[in-house]
Amino acid sequence: MITVTAAIIQKGAKILITRRAPGKHLAGYWEFPGGKLDQNETEQECLAREIQEELNITIQVDEFYRENIHQYANKQILLKAFKCSLVSGDIILRDHDKMAWINNNELTNYEFAPADIPIVKALLE
Ligand SMILES: Nc1nc2c([nH]c(=O)n2[C@@H]2O[C@H](COP(=O)(O)OP(=O)(O)OP(=O)(O)O)[C@@H](O)[C@H]2O)c(=O)[nH]1
């Protein structure tokens, strides 16, 4: 099983979502940015690293939110979502082709990666 971290980055009342770029697994689906846990790093370190690499911003990882295990056709992932806040930097999309700052109630307007659905549902409650 692959552990994947995901950041729910809050700025005021809005949260950041990003769309997976063409050519990637699940291209075109929206997600919470993040990525696979490397050996010898904590989940918090992984998330801060991935967000810096993918989005060019520095975040603070505030708290664990929810996790979900999902079986894709060729892999099983443990998706771990954390509430985060923006510390500094301007976003540059390096891995995604779109981003949006949205209110939680707008989550229903976007098609999320299947593994994210329970996390999206929790955010809508
Ligand atoms: N970052 C992120 N990945 C997610 C989410 N939901 C979800 O199913 N994933 C999946 O978890 C894996 C995370 O991989 P990644 O973003 O680090 O790397 P990648 O696509 O370049 O890797 P890969 O193509 O080798 O699988 C991908 O298979 C991705 O589709 C999510 O909300 N955030």
From TrEMBL:
Catalytic activity line of the entry: 8-oxo-GTP + H2O = 8-oxo-GMP + diphosphate + H(+); 8-oxo-dGTP + H2O = 8-oxo-dGMP + diphosphate + H(+)
A Pfam family assignment: NUDIX_4
GO MF annotations in UniProt: 8-oxo-7,8-dihydrodeoxyguanosine triphosphate pyrophosphatase activity; 8-oxo-7,8-dihydroguanosine triphosphate pyrophosphatase activity; 8-oxo-dGDP phosphatase activity; 8-oxo-GDP phosphatase activity; metal ion binding
Cofactor field: Mg(2+)
Enzyme class, UniProt record, top EC level: hydrolase
Highest taxon in the source lineage: Bacteria
Record keywords: DNA damage, DNA repair, DNA replication, Hydrolase, Magnesium, Metal-binding, Mutator protein
Protein EC: 3.6.1.55
Domain Nudix hydrolase: 1-125
InterPro entries in the record: MutT-like, MutY_C, Nudix_hydrolase, NUDIX_hydrolase-like_dom_sf, NUDIX_hydrolase_CS, NUDIX_hydrolase_dom
Gene Ontology biological-process entries: DNA repair; DNA replication
CDD domains (alphabetical): NUDIX_MutT_NudA_like
PANTHER family in UniProt: 8-OXO-DGTP DIPHOSPHATASE, NUDIX HYDROLASE FAMILY PROTEIN
Family as reported in the entry's similarity comment: Belongs to the Nudix hydrolase family.
The protein's name: 8-oxo-dGTP diphosphatase
Organism: Marinilabilia rubra
